[in-house]
Amino acid sequence: MRDLTFAPEGLRLSNGENREYLVSYAGLERAMERRVTLESTALLCDNDMNLHISLGDISGIMPREEVQFCRSGEEVKDIAVLTRVGRPICFKVIGFTRDEYGRRAALLSRRAVQQECLLQFVAELRPGDVIPAKVTHMENFGAFVDIGCGIVSLLSIDCISVSRIAHPRERFSVGEYLSVVIRQIDDDGRIFVSHRELLGTWAENAACFSAGQTVVGTVRSVESYGIFVELAPNLAGLAELKGDVSVGHQASVYIKNIIPEKMKIKLIIIDSHVADSTPRPFTYFMTADNVTHIDRWRYSPPESERVIETVFDD
To which H or E segment does residue 25 belong? Predict the structure, then answer.
């Protein structure tokens, strides 16, 4: 089973991890003694900005200041609390109290989990490390991903795939689990990740196709000299101009030729139509389950004079 010690939020809940601690007061006491990280769903945020967490027969209360780890001088923002409602949230049990009706309640801290994650996991990360992540939200410029216990990193749009897209929603859905590679750690400790290096080289993707096939692709760009059609997130070909073809269309394309030394695939568009907005599934050639680190990734094939590569400098 995947090590869930510092997993993105939601994995423990979906795998039933630590479920035995959540069924009774005695179980929660054991979890507090052992400093076990648990996970459940935030049910509501009260007027004092405290979160109430589902723990079965026992109430779970997470005070506002325990919702998120903040650097010195920073405070937990309202939006950081409100956006947790209805979502999985990790925590440690830090004590017990009674609610206004005299019922026993567990005091919970996500901040303690994140502090532990920062010290024992994030601080040890280096460029080139491959880790699991979860999409938390998306903007035009990229996707924000949980790289562990709710700690968020930016996956910029140009690092999602080799084939360019207009918005991350063309690749991902919020809540989706991914593999990412650490791209950069700045002087303030902020971490930036990449994704395209895990989706295969030009040669690996081209090997999935052959001349003479007719396959499905997505129109990514219409230029004066031709139409770029994405066959896979890290592979696109150039088709001759054809009327009534627009960016975003799904296209049936005939593969005329594959030329590795020029990294080119020549296509003919047979037909095209408006596609639905659901992201097409993609294939990983490397994942956090089978690769832990990469030093260098070369996209271009050996016979190509043009070199496209990523070097992960520590």
Answer: helix 25-34
User: What CATH number corresponds to the domain at position 234?
Assistant: 2.40.50.140
| Conformational region of residue 165, where left means phi above 0, alpha means psi within -120 to 50, and beta covers everything else | beta
What's 289's DSSP letter? T
pLDDT tens figures, 48-84: 999 999 897 888 999 999 999 998 888 999 999 999 9
Question: What pLDDT shows up at residue 2?
Answer: 60
Mean pLDDT of 263-267: 96
Q: Does 162 share its domain with 251?
A: no
- CA 247 to each of CA 157, 163, 223, 237, 278: distance values in angstroms, whole numbers, following the listed order: 17, 13, 10, 14, 15
CA 51 to chain centre: 25
The answer to whether residues 100 and 223 belong to one domain is: no
Q: Specify the residue for token string 């088709």.
A: 239
- The separation between CA 182 and the C-alpha centre of its own chain, rounded to angstroms, equals 12
The reply to whether 165 and 254 lie within a common domain is no
Domain that holds residue 146: 125-199+285-311
Domain end marker among 87, 120, 153: 120
Are residue 162 and residue 303 in the same domain, yes or no?
yes
In this predicted structure, what is the pLDDT of residue 313?
Answer: 79
Asked if the model's pLDDT at residue 224 lies above 70, the reply is yes
d(CA 37, CA 255): 52
Considering the domain architecture, whether residues 98 and 148 belong to the same structural domain is answered as: no
Q: What is the pLDDT of residues 13-39, one digit of tens each?
A: 888 888 889 888 899 999 999 999 999
- 3-class secondary structure, 27: helix
pTM: predicted TM-score of the whole model, two decimal places = 0.90
pLDDT of residue 251: 94
3-state secondary structure of 194: strand
Taken as a whole, the chain contains a residue count of: 314
Q: How many domains does the chain have?
A: 3
